[in-house]
């Protein structure tokens, strides 16, 4: 799956082993997602997670699978998960050159029970040199620019693993007949502009005026712009909306709104990894007041507004938000 080991951070096989562990967990989650309705994996656990959301059975199962795989692999000192309040230390000693992994074990939870594409998102850092020997929760709070790798898995019509180590973006499709992820999308580049926008318009009334004007602008006919009106696509699974827009061109927006001033998506294991991937594919990722990857995290479950996708479409959004453009 890793093309060339020398492309991998650390090149002593550690990263390949870590990615192998993530791939193994993804295959197990894929197996269970595909038969969720048969093995009583639909529905809730009865627990409310740290996000104050009802935890789905598959949220917990995926969380446990990834923790088990990362613990077994021995390459990771600390993990952070959407489904666990604190960061989880896996190793206390000998963290030299090891990794911190932050992940959203199951993204798109509201779609689990209705057979709509869902996914897993992961972000990988090194243990900071000055934290070796005393790894703490703070070792997970590094800004997105320091990621050494990031990726996601979509459990959709097929299962695809897409990741970057800072040398471009590649996609690997799971061949269930041999149980291997095989290279299917080499060197993914996202179009400069597409015709798709993804946003939950049900929140329209809680948006700021600049964003409302941007959405209206995209919906307008314009004889000089054959692309407009754009078309809207919103699955409600960030990982699936992001993947479609990455391949076809488009913009995904989860803005701040009067109810959620910091938006809904989580900085460390949703926004940062996708921002690293989209920038590596020639796209752009903003909070509305600067690049997502430059945000200094304060806590593991920080939230952030997200404007992500084709660079010229994100540029348009930022221009409307700032009032630089009104039409
Ligand atoms: O229902 P809303 O408010 O549009 O939110 C949908 C968004 O929330 C999420 O489901 C949040 O992620 P989780 O499912 O991992 O909690 C995103 O995948 C999705 O884009
Ligand atoms: Mg999520
Ligand atoms: Mg989730």
UniProtKB/TrEMBL annotation:
First-tier enzyme category under EC: hydrolase
Binding, Mg(2+) 1: 82, 104, 106
Record text on cofactor binding: Binds 2 magnesium ions per subunit.
Pathway: Carbohydrate biosynthesis
UniProt main location, coarse: cytoplasm
Entry GO terms, CC: cytosol
Reaction(s) catalysed by this chain's protein: beta-D-fructose 1,6-bisphosphate + H2O = beta-D-fructose 6-phosphate + phosphate
Subcellular location: Cytoplasm
Names of the cofactor(s): Mg(2+)
Binding site for Mg(2+) 2: 104, 107, 270
GO BP, sorted A to Z: fructose 1,6-bisphosphate metabolic process; fructose 6-phosphate metabolic process; fructose metabolic process; gluconeogenesis; sucrose biosynthetic process
Domain Fructose-1-6-bisphosphatase class I N-terminal: residue ranges: 2-185
Gene3D superfamilies from the UniProt entry: 3.40.190.80, Fructose-1,6-Bisphosphatase, subunit A, domain 1
UniProt-listed Pfam families: FBPase, FBPase_C
Annotated binding of substrate, by residue: 107-110, 200, 234, 264
Keyword Lipoprotein: no
Transmembrane segments: none
Alphabetic keyword roster: Carbohydrate metabolism, Cytoplasm, Hydrolase, Magnesium, Metal-binding
EC number(s) from the headed UniProt entry: 3.1.3.11
Keyword Nucleotidyltransferase: no
GO molecular function term, any single one: fructose 1,6-bisphosphate 1-phosphatase activity
HAMAP family found in the cross-reference section: FBPase_class1
Summary of subunit composition and partner proteins: Homotetramer.
Family listed: Belongs to the FBPase class 1 family.
Protein name, as recorded: Fructose-1,6-bisphosphatase class 1
Name of the gene: fbp
């Amino acid at each position: 799956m890793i093309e060339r080991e020398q492309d991998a951070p650390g090149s002593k096989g550690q990263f390949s082993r870590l990615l192998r562990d993530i791939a193994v967990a993804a295959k197990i989650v894929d197996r269970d997602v595909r038969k969720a309705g048969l093995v009583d994996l639909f529905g809730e656990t009865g627990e409310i997670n740290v996000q104050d959301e009802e935890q789905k059975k598959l949220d917990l199962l995926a969380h446990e699978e990834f923790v088990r795989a990362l613990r077994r692999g021995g390459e990771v000192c600390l993990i952070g998960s959407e489904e666990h309040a604190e960061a989880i230390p896996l190793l206390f000693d000998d963290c030299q050159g090891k990794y911190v992994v932050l992940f959203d074990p199951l993204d798109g939870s509201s779609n689990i029970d209705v057979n709509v594409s869902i996914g897993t998102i992961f972000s990988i850092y090194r243990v900071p040199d000055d934290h070796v020997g005393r790894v703490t929760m703070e070792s997970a709070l590094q800004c997105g620019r320091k990621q050494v790798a990031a990726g996601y898995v979509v459990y959709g019509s097929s299962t695809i693993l897409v990741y970057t180590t800072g040398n471009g973006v590649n996609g690997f499709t799971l061949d269930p007949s041999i149980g291997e992820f095989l290279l299917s999308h080499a060197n993914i580049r996202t179009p400069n502009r597409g015709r798709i926008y993804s946003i939950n318009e049900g929140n329209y009334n809680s948006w700021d005026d600049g964003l409302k004007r941007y959405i209206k602008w995209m919906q307008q006919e314009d004889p000089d712009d054959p692309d407009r009106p754009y078309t809207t696509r919103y699955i409600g699974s960030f990982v699936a909306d992001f993947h479609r827009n990455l391949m076809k061109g488009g913009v995904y927006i989860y803005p701040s709104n009067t109810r959620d001033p910091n938006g809904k998506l989580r900085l460390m294991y949703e926004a940062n990894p996708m921002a690293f991937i989209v920038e590596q594919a020639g796209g752009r990722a903003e909070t509305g007041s600067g690049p997502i990857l430059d945000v200094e995290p304060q806590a593991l479950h920080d939230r952030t507004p997200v404007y992500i996708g084709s660079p010229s479409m994100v540029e348009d959004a930022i221009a409307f938000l700032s009032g630089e453009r009104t039409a």
